[in-house]
Amino acid sequence: MKICFATNNVKKIEEVKAALGEEFEIVSLQEIGCHEELPETGDTLDHNAFQKARYVKDNYGVDCFADDTGLEVEVLNGAPGVYSGRFAGEPRSDERNIDLLLSKMEGKENRKARFRTVIALILEGQEYRFEGVAAGEIIPQRVGSGGFGYDPVFKPDGFEHTFAELSLSEKNEISHRGKAVKALISFLSQRKF
Length: 193
Description:
By secondary structure, this protein is an alpha/beta fold. 31% of the residues lie in helices and 24% in strands.
């Protein structure tokens, strides 16, 4: 089965391709001729995920899925949340986002956080939603060089390593995106094509 993943994030595509395996072929935005930035103006993860998927379906006529992910820090009242990618403003920078997060976490005892991913799927004229959550904590300094985003400062519950220290397959087993993708795969696998 061939389906478009509506994202320009190469690291996300790698993660999802690894999770989907051989049964599914991921088509990138570039492969369908979409070279523009997708709209992402919502104030919720759901809004953004569906906005991106609908944009691709409406403008390119391709069945697709899109995701939006947020890091929700308990002591920051769920921030940066839907604004995780642009927490430190434009231009987007993982390094500046982490710097801002760590500065806001200085002196805080409660370091609980969670990553949450919402996947919006548009398939054969119908819309579907999948979600995955990974709970953990924000550590005081970066550890590891893998992954992307806040991975170097996020240690998932039950692990001694940050997401940035885990292999792609280890991360996909326990991550928010991995869980949402598993729900997507389970749904797609049950459908007859």
